[in-house]
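pinned: reference chain
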Amino acid sequence: MTPGYPLLGLLAVFLFSGCGNLPGRPSPSAIPVDPGDVTDFNLLYNKNCSGCHGAAGQGGAALDLGDPVYLAIVDDSTLRDVVSNGIPGTSMAAFAKSAGGMLTDSQVNIIVRGIRQRYSKPNALAGANPPPYAAKEPGDPKRGADVYKTFCASCHGPDGKGASKAGSIVDGSFLALLTDRELRTLTIVGRPDLGAPDWRNNVPGKPMTPQEISDVVAWLSSQRPQFSGRPYPSVAKAAGALP
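pinned: its structure tokens
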């Protein structure tokens, strides 16, 4: 056996055992994780949801996902559908890869499950029977005008254009951003963060019925502008006329 072989073998062992510590070699924690492999709820929520719905599901521009009343009326299937596919015509985008987003189905499930586990409260409704999340019967705008006067006018003014307690809810730009489903959800759940009560507390001791909710949503919907972004009547003008 050639005398130099053992020495070469020892040298090779030494060199290869030290490769992991070579200068410039990234540590395992510094190697980027494939976005599709992220499974941490906090990271997924903060990167995808908190910008609109607020940290911990509260305080954002959109509905509080951490509102226990909302979570008591909406089921997981609906939550999953909204996160996955968004709400067409609104600022709620689709987040699932199958709908053009960036999240896997597993990540969507992690977000839905995490929201439910962290923010639901078993007694959020205090024994009350909530109106259904989806309307069972169509609303009537004429009846809705009377419902509005009973339950909403004290805060939003007699015509819905705002008062000292709350702003306008008939503004065309506002209504153009919301679907009837979102209007119904807001009517049921309220916006506690903005001082708007849920369906039980607009008039003390007189909760809104499911039909009254459908009717007032129909009244609001009837005032939505025909074209999104154009909260004013479309009037034909002569060529060259000033806008």
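why pinned: The domain at 141-221 is CATH 1.10.760.10 (Cytochrome Bc1 Complex; Chain D, domain 2). The two ends are 99 Å apart (CA to CA).
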